[in-house]
Amino acid sequence: MADVLGKAVMDFQQGNYTEDIKTFSSLDEEDVIPIPYLFRNFKEMPKIEQKALKLAYGKVLDIGCGAGSHALYLQDKSLDVTALDNSEGCIAVAKERGVQKTILSPILDYSGDTFDTLLLLMNGIGLAGTLSNLTAFLQHLASLLRENGQILLDSSDIIYMFDEDEDGGFWIPNNGHYYGEVNFTMQYKEWKTEPFDWIYLDYNTLQNACWANGLECELIVSGKHYDYLAKLTLKR
User: Fold this and answer.
1) Three-state DSSP class for 120?
2) Is residue 82 predicted with pLDDT exceeding 60?
3) What is the annotated signal peptide range for this record (predicted)?
4) CATH number of 4-234
5) CA distance 225 to 211
6) pLDDT tens, 170-210?
7) Is the CB of residue 116 less than 8 Å from the CB of residue 126?
8) Which DSSP letter does residue 42 get?
9) What letters, b where the CB count within 10 A reaches 16 and e where it falls short, cover 149-166?
10) What is the CA radius of gyration of the chain?
11) Rounded distance, CA 201 to CA 129, Å?
12) How many angstroms separate the CA atoms of 115 and 147, rounded?
């Protein structure tokens, strides 16, 4: 698959920023990912991300690190942080920006160490792809946790994107799929990804999946737009 995100952040890092990443999904026709947003500092981050970074402790794995903004903040706070991404361009940029420990790998292929904190920000749980993959994904994350470790992740309940009826209910297509499953394509300049699956999880669905897989799930923060931060820990 074309390294769309990597090419975009590399251009920005090298001073060649001329356009943003376009996204096309099964939910809406077109949206954009502003590339400067991927280089934000702590003050520019949403409150949910700020809270997650403040809760991080010990040895940290930043999963889906992108341009390395979260890892850099934690590194500056003297935490032992490793940034992981499956994008060569993102890892190269993270290194250029000063991230000291990086891993180029899909998270499901990585099993080299265990950590006190796993970070999955910017809807990192979306990497599970579909609801049917969630069990294997959570079990793999749990295998990377130390005994008293934590998984910090944010996501959104995208129920608000569906039509609401007079009684306050929502019209969700009865197509056999969980409504948070989305199919995406990303494009940057002449490069375009193959379609890929991404999932947005409502908190109750996440909590039930955690309980079924030996994990405790705690709601830490609820945002203003159906978004939330959750902390997952191993059941005692």
Assistant:
1) strand
2) yes
3) none
4) 3.40.50.150
5) 25
6) 555 666 678 889 999 999 999 999 999 999 999 999 999 99
7) no
8) G
9) bbbbbbbbbbeebeeeee
10) 18
11) 11
12) 9
